[in-house]
Fold Probable farnesyl diphosphate synthase.
Amino acid sequence: MILPFEVKLAAGASLVENTLRDLLDARPLEGELYRPERLLRAMRHGVLNGGKRLRPFLILETAALFDASDDVAALRVAAALECVHCYSLVHDDLPAMDDDDLRRGQPTVHRAFDEAAAILAGDSLLTYAFDIVSAPETPLPAEARLALVNRLARASGIGGMAGGQALDLAAEGSRLSEEEILRLQAMKTGALIRYACEAGGVIGGAQPADIERLGEFGAAIGLAFQLADDLLDLTSSSETMGKATGKDAAAGKATLAGLHGVDWTRRQLNGLVAQAEDILEPFGERAETLRQTARFVADRQK
């Protein structure tokens, strides 16, 4: 039986959610002295608050191409990536960054707790992600764990997500070229999505050419994700999105949707879906769920 895409996505989110709950247990791991209860609650608030879990889903589905989707390793790496993504949201919401009060329909961590707790929760989620991937409990050869850690560090750091956020903050009120916007978005949003697609290949023991192909797919849908997000910021409501909308224009942030308009953005999204489908062609029918993911990313309404 072929399940509707939304059912598959929800099932993957549930698996990852359960893994995250286990990982964010109050019991200290070997080598830890103690897990402060309030800090742990702030971390859970930032992670266990719903969400589509798209990035972890991409790990599970790209690993599935190589028969590794139900593997403990795939779930643990997927959970680790979600920790990095959620840390970035916790920090981005802070008054010094985007100054948001609402995330996924709930108060942001600094509103539910305080700014110091939000900073420490983000710090802890980021470092915990590397713990999860590198730990012996992630049943992969040491070489594969090292590759996953290295790729994650580069995708999330100065040359990836954090660097992209720095460019985004610096660009407020500036007129960026299309090339500059593309670079910013490829770093801030695209880097972790590309990592998710490559990581599934690493977990599944794929050949380097296949991992590179999956990275190209991730780059295409990463741009589509950002374009769709920018479009929703222009056209959707805060009630639908579960967070504030219209903030890019208010802050003077340059986006491709703002630069070229709604119709152009929708045409670009269609083109990126076609590009993503072409990239997946060598994987045949095994990649059908990934094709559905590309269409979901481009067509999403929240």
About this structure: The mean pLDDT is 92. The two ends are 28 Å apart (CA to CA). The first strand starts at residue 102 and ends at 103.
